[in-house]
């Protein structure tokens, strides 16, 4: 494709900004980015509150793909203690520690066969876990039709009930038996009891041989990595730097601007223009030669002005999203919380609604305005419009604080300040009409200059590096025509695809 043509990008999150930067690097001179929020970064943005910085969900900068690792470090350098200035934004090398809170006890994640774990579980439960795992290996559930089947086949029913079921049901709001096994293939991939044991053996070998800790962890399942990079001032600071860079190289960035229409030609195979509405109500229609979209698929199809098959519209309307809320708590340091070195904690406790706890001091101390305080993110999964989503902020903060007290982490008197952040469409769901997602994919493949990318753009629960890879492969497809458009859907769908390309 002629690099002089006009490329329009919907969304200034990781996928959209990656596509913009790559197009400009390849010599394209006309790039416009449209973002409905007033801030770049999408779900990877950093939320600021009185000098405190909240990371929505916790974003580890790690990828098995060298292309992505090199991309990140080309934007921000890795910290060098001998040269880094206090105010310079750099990547910090962080040690990963996440644990599971279950039965008011902390278990390593992934679960290890340490004496600590064995003593906390007790003999009776250990025997049940062992026998249920053996049963799953001897008589696996075939075919795997649900996420519950996926977990039981890899961990056994008892271990699944102990460490996976309740948290996963908090995330999605429905039973694991009603979720597609595709979610497990997407997020858990090769994680299993045997994988955990192999990882433990490799870790022990590294310690015995005093191997130096690096980011070279390509033989490690992503859920098991021990180190990762993290921007000193939060993940949004990297995407803000990318936004400045693409604008400096000629891209037009339109913030607080909504897409109100995608205009198709009479044949329904080409996007000819996009209609926009800015925050002040100004309407604008931009002609375009190619559109790269990270807009949620449900909204994308609803915005099309032109012929859309009835079945495509039906599947798009049936796509479901799970939303997200976090309570940022500024706390007086206490002995209990100060001892926790976790980046985040999975709350596998059925008597609280809280799903996860982020301890932002342990991600980067520069996220916290007052180093004498602790900054926590208490995460809740919900659906836009439900009881949690519509709860008044003060009531939500009181509920979250009481739950933190209930699990014995702090008291209300330790809370110095609090705020609430709502994130719509944080998680594309693997239920609703998802089983028929191929109908949408086939139709989108037929609109030759419309390219969906990223988590919501592809309705796939991607990690950040996979969203970026989908954008990079899309630019390859547009400019170099080195792969068919339909193959972009394989990013993070086939393990070999993104690890070998």
TrEMBL record:
One of its GO terms (cellular component) is cytosol. It comes from the Bacteria. Residues 15-442 form the Amine oxidase domain. One of its GO terms (molecular function) is flavin adenine dinucleotide binding. It holds the Pfam family Amino_oxidase. NCBIfam families: PRK07208.1-1 (NF005545), PRK07208.1-2 (NF005546), PRK07208.1-4 (NF005548). This is NAD(P)/FAD-dependent oxidoreductase.
